[in-house]
């Protein structure tokens, strides 16, 4: 790299959507940019920035290479400040949050005028943000935090209509009739969201960033580029490494539990930070874990203000019956540390893209139990590349404990299927680590060159 070129400090305004699955990759990209002499302004709501302050290495903040910028949504009686994030947000308020966000252009306009950054990196649901940047002669780049298979399918449906599923050129990626109806209803209920998604790509300067790897999603990246008319630049997995020097001993018991178990014998169960299992779903998962007879760590979360005890939520006597081989954790667990442990042999997951990539990155096969939105596509992508098996639902969309148990046993206990899958997962882990670094380096150079070009 040219030393003179790299010595110029460019100021980047990061503006993610208000969900943890978006905040986290934007923050990881911010850290990588600071290593290349970019100054970061990370713009989000106070409740999210508070979370970042608590979890970000203080050196980034003390050195001021990452500066947090408060973004205050319009105040509404039904949407107090602690609901200015999708985390713990009651489902009936999601449309209220989106509407409030969409109406906050004047607030963001003041921020971008005051900072006058060299570059804006923006998310979805905010096509007005790149419009403001362009108006101020600031280059802007869209960052898609989900995978290329997902975005290629969405773009295909937007281009050819919701009855065009069967003409999608990659048969491994499909939607059930029930999933099709849900997605179509979602788009119809949020009129104009399809246009917003399209504009986010269209308004991006020269290229679009995506959290993916060409090595594993090449055909989907190429198809997405054809459909959108944009060059797609991959960033690699953007996984935060687990901190072995972490002084927080709150979860030492989890690591001790894993240390006592055989290699690849434990299933890690978690459904992300924003989805809350219903009582019926928890009961079926508990039944599946019990029937499978495997070791497990299960992280359970309850909605804010609507908490019931774990014993009350689970089948009677379950905790007592599985106490020698199972561990139920409430709230949060160190996911990266669990996934990288040699005793972990499978990840029963909702298949959010960040969780799926983290599982791939640590070489752990997915036991896929997708819930909604992009998750069924991600689950089928994991199956396609031979690092996952899907828990199938019945015709009404319900899960059954017997099906969960069968898939767990195939992944963890089956000497043929399980071992083959772990072998594929180890190969994928190597690709993500080696090629991911290369693709990230290229992407950072693309961003620097875009800033340089705009300064000429």
Automatic annotation (TrEMBL):
GO terms for biological process: glycoside biosynthetic process. PROSITE patterns: UDPGT. The lineage of its organism: Eukaryota, Viridiplantae, Streptophyta, Embryophyta, Tracheophyta. Its EC number is 2.4.1.-. The keyword RNA-binding does not apply. The keyword Acyltransferase does not apply. It is an enzyme of class 2 (transferase). This is Glycosyltransferase. Residues 12-238 form the Glycosyltransferase N-terminal domain. Belongs to the UDP-glycosyltransferase family. Keywords: Glycosyltransferase, Transferase. It comes from Cinchona calisaya. One of its GO terms (molecular function) is UDP-glycosyltransferase activity. Pfam families: Glyco_transf_N (PF26168), UDPGT (PF00201).
């Amino acid at each position: 790299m040219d030393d003179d070129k790299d010595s110029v400090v460019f100021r980047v305004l990061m503006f993610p959507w208000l969900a943890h699955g978006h905040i986290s990759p934007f923050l990881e990209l911010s850290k990588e940019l600071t290593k290349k002499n970019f100054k970061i302004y990370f713009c989000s709501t106070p409740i999210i920035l508070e979370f970042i302050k608590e979890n970000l290495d203080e050196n980034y903040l003390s050195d001021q290479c990452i500066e947090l910028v408060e973004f205050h949504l319009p105040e509404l009686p039904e949407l107090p400040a602690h609901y200015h994030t999708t985390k713990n947000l009651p489902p009936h308020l999601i449309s209220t949050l989106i509407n409030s966000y969409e109406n906050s252009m004047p607030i963001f306009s003041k921020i971008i005028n005051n900072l006058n950054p060299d570059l804006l990196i923006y998310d979805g649901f905010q096509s007005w943000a790149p419009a403001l940047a362009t108006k101020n002669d600031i280059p802007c780049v869209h960052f898609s935090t989900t995978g290329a298979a997902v975005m290629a399918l969405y773009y295909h449906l937007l281009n050819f209509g919701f009855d065009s599923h069967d003409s999608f050129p990659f048969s491994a990626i499909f939607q059930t009739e029930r999933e099709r109806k849900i997605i179509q209803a979602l788009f119809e209920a949020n009129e104009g969201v399809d246009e917003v998604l399209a504009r986010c790509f269209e308004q991006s300067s020269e290229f679009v960033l995506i959290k993916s790897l060409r090595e594993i999603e090449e055909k989907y990246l190429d198809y997405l580029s054809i459909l959108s008319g944009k060059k797609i630049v991959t960033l690699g997995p953007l996984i935060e490494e687990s901190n072995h020097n972490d002084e927080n001993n709150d979860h030492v018991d989890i690591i001790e539990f894993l240390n006592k178990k055989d290699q690849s014998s434990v299933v890690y169960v978690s459904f992300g930070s924003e989805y809350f299992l219903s009582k019926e779903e928890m009961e079926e998962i508990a039944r599946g874990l019990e029937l499978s007879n495997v070791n497990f760590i299960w992280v359970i979360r309850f909605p804010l203000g609507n908490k019931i005890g774990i014993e009350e939520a689970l089948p009677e006597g379950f905790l007592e019956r599985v106490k020698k081989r199972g561990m139920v954790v409430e709230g949060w667990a160190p996911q990266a540390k669990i996934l990288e442990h040699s005793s972990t042999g499978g990840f029963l997951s909702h298949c959010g893209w960040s969780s799926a990539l983290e599982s791939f990155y640590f070489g752990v096969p997915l036991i896929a139990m997708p819930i909604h939105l992009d998750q069924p596509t991600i689950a089928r992508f994991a199956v396609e590349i031979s690092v996952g098996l899907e828990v199938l639902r019945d015709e009404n969309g319900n899960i059954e404990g017997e099906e969960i148990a069968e898939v767990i046993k195939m992944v963890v206990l089956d000497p043929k299927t399980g071992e083959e899958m772990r072998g594929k997962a180890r190969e994928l882990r190597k690709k993500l680590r080696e090629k991911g670094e290369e693709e990230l380096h290229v992407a950072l150079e693309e961003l620097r060159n875009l800033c340089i070009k705009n300064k000429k």
